[in-house]
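FOLDING PROBLEM:
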Amino acid sequence: MDTRPFFFKKFGLFHHRSTMKIGTDAILLSRWVEVNPTDDVLDIGTGCGLIPLMISQKGIHHADAVEIDHDSFEEASLNFKNSAWRDKLAVYHEDVKTFADRNIARYDLIVSNPPFFFGDNVPQKTKKGLARHTNTLSYRDLLVSVKKMLKPDGRFALVLPAIESVAFLKIASELGFSLQKEMKIVPIEGKEPNRINMQLIANQCKTISETFVLRYENHVFTREYKEFFKDFYLD
């Protein structure tokens, strides 16, 4: 689902080059994650920059963003420059593994809407497919980079397909992460969750779990959805 009509004007997003849509995954993750006014945040694979923009509206100290695709980097740069939070935002055109090795900053919160596809399961002839292919950034590479840049008491929040979250959490556990909380996202009332928002920390903890339904069976957005996003809608 493309939710651009609700968010285009609010965040000053231009989409002047990229064909990538603003999807539900990034919007739900941005809205769900909790932030503090003193938080320094990093978004890995920022795309057009939506996640840092939404998080900045909620109130943070600063947000860095990393984007390997040149067109998306330029788009995020322009969106940041034209936003009300321009002084709190910076974007880097770089592979996150290189960024993690050279960057001395440590973050209170790291956020990512990471690659979804494995092996040959890649959409053909689309920049989105290339950007989201795990041959470019494996889950282990992502977690190792996060571990280098996260403060000892920091949080790592991301969204994944439910079926892939199992393998991801296994790798995360091997690297010393624990699942602090999760939101299981149900696309249609009565269906199984197809996405999961997850927040990981470096300490052992009990997992807090909730379920969020996007639409009723008639495909109308639920009251829960509308209430969740009331501060971000244009209408």
Remarks:
- The longest helix spans residues 162-174.
- The chain is about 35% helix and 25% strand.
- Residues 100 and 212 are 33 Å apart (CA to CA).
- The longest strand covers residues 150-161.
